[in-house]
Amino acid sequence: xxxxxxxxxxxxxxxxxxxxxxxxxxxxxxxxxxxxxxxxxxxxxxxxxxxxxxxxxxxxxxxxxxxxxxxxxxxxxxxxxxxxxxxxxxxxxxxxxxxxxxxxxxxxxxxxxxxxxxxxxxxxxxxxxxxxxxxxxxxxxxxxxxxxxxxxxxxxxxxxxxxxxxxxxxxxxxxxxxxxxxxxxxxxxxxxxxxxxxxxxxxxxxxxxxxxxxxxxxxxxxxxxxxxxxxxxx
Length: 234
Ligand code: XBP
Ligand code: MG
Fold this sequence. Notes:
The chain is of the alpha/beta class.
């Protein structure tokens, strides 16, 4: 079966962004006089819930039984998340987070070989744009035939919704595509959509369960090996 498209996760896969997300959450909490601080060990646990707004709510529910929620709790969380996104995108625009090894080359090679490329992420469109403007240039979006982000679907990863949305946009069947993910939740999401999935691990995810993955790599620094293992004709 010839692979016609590669669908990329963003956070942890295209770049090691999770720590920048963590720092942006903490800046936002401090600015709002909330005595909340997500250290690396805690954030590692909180990552089991995807999506920033969902993660804040999970933290409140699971770790702060005595927190008195403001009357408009939904708006409170939404507002925190808007501020967090501003901090995060500012950090990306400062250019401190490079794309992971092999990613830029893979995108270029695949594009030249006529493959379709797509994004399936739980993070917001602003965050994807800020990351890829720095990593791929102002016209980054021209590389992608479908860009599935954040709240565009009802259920975030590990639900298959975002991958199903992307498949529909690409007008391709799951067996025409491969997905590239970095986490247990991402892998479950892509597999639930029926897509063969490869994993590149990172410090937050390397101990997670990748049962069901077609291959697990530390990174894509050895692209010829990746091409031969995946059967990509690039
Ligand atoms: C990873 C996530 C995201 C980010 C935070 O997404 O779980 O929630 O941690 O992003 P993916 P937001 O790996 O699917 O790209 O605060 O913008 O939700
Ligand atoms: Mg990820």
